[in-house]
Amino acid sequence: KQEVTQIPAALSVPEGENLVLNCSFTDSAIYNLQWFRQDPGKGLTSLLLIQSSQREQTSGRLNASLDKSSGRSTLYIAASQPGDSATYLCAVRHGFNKFYFGSGTKLNVKP
Amino acid sequence: GAVVSQHPSRVICKSGTSVKIECRSLDFQATTMFWYRQFPKQSLMLMATSNEGSKATYEQGVEKDKFLINHASLTLSTLTVTSAHPEDSSFYICSAHLYTGELFFGEGSRLTVL
User: How far apart are CA B4 and CA A99, in angstroms?
Assistant: First the structure.
């Protein structure tokens, strides 16, 4: 069974710092990997989707990488801002309608 | 990106009553939708996979008769919490995916059972 792990569980950084969030998965036979952010009391917002054939995706200050063979993905956030404070989750699609989620990294960017 | 709308965002009901939550894909058709439950400070727990025109597939430990799922059209799935009790109070979220495999989520529904 696929297991998805996110480290660290929580992270606090000063504004302006570059940071990396980690996501690992146990079975490399995935269709894709997706990063989300969740604000308190809200649903999940899609940030980046990386298909299994891709190595990275970029959107603005966000860059996500995927190393399928080692079962790892990273989400890089450049020049962090207080508005980036949220919980970040990764999810892998493993099977046609099977999605597995990590437990999330709670990010706090201090002004 | 695609839009998934969930309604209501908050609902308070008395113990013993039933509550229906709607999940709509606004700009795409979704043959499959997913329903999750999220406890405070925890990740998502998949409850069931909703299939258009057929029965939902429930995860182990989820009571089918308690959480009724109907997926009557390609853009609408509903979750009905029947005979709700305080322990059913939670945050319920739905999602659907595009043909690319990208998942999109509703805004979530906060259920409080008094």
Answer: 17
Closest CA to A38 of A92, A111, A91: A91
Q: Do B44 and A102 touch (CB under 8 A)?
A: no
Q: Is B49 on the interface with A (CB under 8 A)?
A: yes
Which of B39, B59, B102 is best to mutate for the A interface (most A CBs within 10 A)?
Answer: B102
Q: CB B104 to CB A42 under 8 A?
A: no
Per-residue pLDDT in tens (0 to 9) along chain A, 111 residues: 899 999 999 999 999 999 999 999 999 999 999 999 999 989 999 999 999 999 999 999 999 999 999 999 999 999 999 999 999 999 999 887 889 999 999 999 999
